[in-house]
Amino acid sequence: MRRILRISASLALGILMLGASLSAHHGTGxxxxxxxxxxxxxxxxxxxxxxxxxxxxxxxxxxQGNVAHWGAELGNPHQLSAAGFSxxxxxPGDKVSITGHPSRSGAPRIQFHHMLLTDGRTxxxxxxxxxxxxxxxxx
Length: 139
Known about the structure:
The chain is α+β, with helices and mostly antiparallel strands. It is about 25% helix and about 35% strand. It has helices spanning about 1-25, 30, 75-80; strands at about 40-50, 55-60, 65-75, 95-100, 110-115, 120-125, 135-139.
């Protein structure tokens, strides 16, 4: 009886630890200000098409000519393919306008929601279409 109780307790603890690990990895609500929207206009420096998450590295220049190196976090390649993205959708040097949630820490990071390409196409993770209609800050 004690052996069964020990095995059951070990299994329950393992399941709890796995759940905590998965929750920590996908805790975007902790990392990003989901109640705020920003739109950033910049130049792509790298388009990262890989698992577990794709990413866009881009440079944003302010009115004084200062350059900030930003990063946008996206979903996985399978999810993005279904939304119209591909590994060839952009390249370094392309101009983009990206809208999403800014980092809570103030780091130059954004949780991607949608973007406008120079050819007029809007790529989105879903929901909002258009160019920054929910943005309350523009850089």
